[in-house]
Design a protein that fits this description.
alpha/beta; 2 domains; seven-stranded mixed β-sheet; 15 strands
Length: 324
C-alpha cells in the first residue's frame, strides 16, 4: 500500500517520505479502515517537528491520528458487521506508530465510530482531536444544561466544535472571535452571541451575561486568564486546552475568592469513556445537520509535505485534509 512516513524528525521536506509499505492486518479488537481522508492536526506537525523534545517514539511513524473511510477487515473479537461501514476514527497515531496517512490503517474498534450518511469522509476525518478536545472542554466542569458558556476562539477548530457541542448540551453560548471574517463560522456552529475580541471584551460579554458566565472554554490561557476571571461567576470553571505562552501569570486571589476551578486538558490522555461519549455526541451533531469544520486546503497523499507546511507556515484559515 502507499503511505507517508518519517524515520527522523525535522522539516517536512527533509523528513516525510511517500512510498510503498506492507499492508497491515487487524489484531484482536482491531479493525482495518481503507482510508478516504486523513485529517492533519497541528499536533501531528508538532510530533514530526519534535516540538516538545520527546524524540522519535518509534523507528518509523506514519503520521495523523484522525481519519475516515470504509472498514474492510476486522480482527478477532470484532463484530464482522463492521465490514463495509463508513466510519471515522481518532487516536490512530496516539501511542501507536502508524496513523491515517496511508491507504490502509488499523485502529482499535473502541476508537472508531460510524459516520452518518449525510456527512462526508472529509468532515469525519476532521472530528478526532478537535472534537474530543472540545467535548472534554465543554463538559469538564459538569453539566452545562441551562448554564452560560463562553468559548474563547469560537471560530477555531476546537472552538467551533465546542460551540456546537455546548449548544446541543443546552447551554447559552457566547463565542469570541479575532476577526470579523470569523463571525459566520461561530454563528453557524450555533453560538447565541458572537463578539469580536478587543479592548472592550469584558463589556461586550457582560452585555449578554450581566451576572457572569458559568464556564469558559479557553484557547489562550496566558493571554486571557485575567479577562476570564472578571467574567466568571462565583464557583465558575475554566477548561484550558491551549495557551499562547508556555508560562502564565494568574490573578491568584481573585480566582481563590471566586472558588474558580481550572482544568488543563491534553487530548491523548482523556479517559476512553470520555472519548467514546464525545464521539457519540459529535456523530449526532453531524447527523442533525451540522456542516462541520471549514476546510482550508486539500492535498493528495503525495503532497503530504505541503499539507504539513500549510499548517506550519499558517498559509490560510480552515482545516487541512489529505485525500487518498
Amino acid at each position: 500500500m502507499r503511505a507517508a512516513w518519517y524515520e527522523k524528525q525535522g522539516p517536512p521536506e527533509e523528513s516525510l517520505v511517500v512510498g510503498e509499505m506492507p499492508e497491515p492486518s487487524p489484531g484482536t479488537n482491531e479493525l482495518r479502515i481503507r482510508v478516504v481522508a486523513s485529517g492533519v492536526n497541528p499536533g501531528d506537525v508538532k510530533k514530526r517537528q519534535d516540538t516538545f523534545g520527546i524524540g522519535m517514539p518509534y523507528p518509523r511513524v506514519v503520521p495523523h491520528s484522525d481519519g475516515a473511510g470504509t472498514v474492510d477487515q476486522v480482527g478477532d473479537g470484532v463484530d464482522p458487521r463492521w465490514v463495509g461501514k463508513r466510519v471515522w476514527c481518532f487516536g490512530a497515531q496516539s501511542y501507536r506508530p502508524f496513523g491515517t496517512a496511508a491507504e490502509l490503517c488499523v485502529v482499535p474498534v473502541a476508537q472508531v465510530s460510524e459516520l452518518p450518511a449525510n456527512a462526508s469522509f472529509e468532515q469525519g476525518a476532521l472530528l478526532g482531536i478537535s472534537g474530543l478536545t472540545a467535548h472534554r472542554a465543554v463538559h469538564a466542569g459538569g453539566s452545562v444544561d441551562g448554564r452560560t458558556v463562553l468559548v474563547q476562539g469560537g471560530a477555531g477548530a476546537v472552538g467551533a466544535c465546542a460551540v456546537r457541542l455546548a449548544r446541543l448540551a443546552g447551554a447559552t453560548v457566547i463565542a469570541t472571535v479575532q476577526r470579523e471574517s470569523q463571525l459566520d463560522t461561530a454563528e453557524e456552529a450555533g453560538a447565541h452571541h458572537v463578539v469580536q475580541s478587543g479592548n472592550q471584551i469584558v463589556e461586550q460579554v457582560t452585555a449578554f451575561a450581566p451576572d457572569g458566565v458559568d464556564h469558559i472554554v479557553e484557547v489562550a490561557f496566558a493571554a486571557n486568564i485575567g479577562v476570564d476571571e472578571q467574567l466568571l461567576k462565583l464557583g465558575g470553571s475554566i477548561a484550558a486546552y491551549a495557551s499562547n505562552a508556555p508560562e502564565a501569570t494568574i490573578p491568584f486571589w481573585p480566582l481563590v475568592f471566586k472558588n474558580v476551578r481550572v482544568f488543563f486538558l491534553g487530548s491523548d490522555d482523556f479517559p476512553l469513556e470520555a472519548k467514546r461519549e464525545a464521539a457519540k455526541d459529535l456523530s449526532a451533531a453531524l447527523e442533525q445537520g451540522w456542516v462541520g469544520l471549514p476546510i482550508g486546503a486539500r492535498f493528495a497523499l503525495g503532497e503530504v509535505g505541503d499539507a504539513h507546511a500549510f499548517i506550519e507556515e499558517r498559509r490560510g484559515p480552515g482545516r487541512v485534509v489529505v485525500v487518498l
